Amino acid sequence: MYCPSCVENESWRDPPELEGADHPRWNGGKVTVDCDVCSDSVERYPSNVHEVVCCSEDCRGQWLSEEFTGEGHPNWAGGGNETYGKGWAAVREAALERDDYQCVHCGTTSDELGRNPDVHHIVPVRAFVASEEYEKTDAHVLENVVSLCLPCHRKAEFGRISAATLLETIGVSRSGEDQNEFGWATPAGS
Q1: By C-alpha distance, which of 125, 182, 122 is closest to 156?
Q2: Taking every annotated instance into account, which residue ranges of this chain make up the domain HNH nuclease (predicted)?
Q3: Where are the alpha helices (DSSP H) in 25-146?
Q4: Among 6, 10, 34, 182, which is most exposed with the fewest C-beta within 10 angstroms?
């Protein structure tokens, strides 16, 4: 209720100006923080300041690339991020030539891809690293690699194209008595 003079005054009809520090829910406005990638200063509301602050999408992408590799990646399955080592370049080139620079599963050519297909280890390098009998470079044999386009490479990595199917496409026999622990035939006397 208002007294008659206030009603005539009409000052009660205008809501108060509640901006900035006068607003009851004011929490200080933007704060200045440093980008965790490039150290540039950037203004953010406190509700948008998290564990990592990036000033741009470029910095965010760089941070993601650095943080989500190796054991930091949610899909990490072991192994190392170091180079594949001696012999990899030669066996990669030999596989591309053997497979005529096309995906052995679907037949997509390097011209259709706009680049060479990926060369996939049928038995992953990490299995050789974990083995006490083999070295990492033992994975780099022509019988253990195939050329695959990116979609087929992903399928192979996630088990939707079996190792047996891939070995069959390159003519490696899995039948016979003399097989090593990785499933391909071993030379006589080894």
Answers
A1: 122
A2: 90-154
A3: 57-67, 88-98, 110-113, 125-130
A4: 10
Quickly state the pLDDT bin for 23 (edges 50, 70, 90). confident
Q: What residues pair up with 120 in beta bridges, in sequence order?
A: 146
Q: Encode pLDDT of 65-103 as tens digits.
A: 888 776 766 666 666 556 777 889 999 999 999 999 999
In total, how many domains does the chain have? 2
62 and 103 both lie in a single domain? no
Query: Would you say residue 144 lies in a domain?
Result: yes
Query: Angle at Cα 102 formed by Cα 90 and Cα 122, nearest 5°?
Result: 60
Residue at 81 is within a domain: no
For residues 65 and 23, what is the distance between their CA atoms, to the nearest angstrom?
Answer: 41
Strands 31-34 and 41-44: antiparallel
127 and 165 together in one domain: yes
pLDDT at 189: 37
- Residue 2 within any structural domain of the chain: no
Q: How far apart are CA 129 and CA 114, in angstroms?
A: 33
Q: Is residue 6 part of a domain?
A: no
Enclosing domain of residue 101: 88-169
3-state class (DSSP) for residue 173: coil
In this structure, what are the phi and psi dihedrals at residue 67, rounded to the nearest 5 degrees? -85, -35
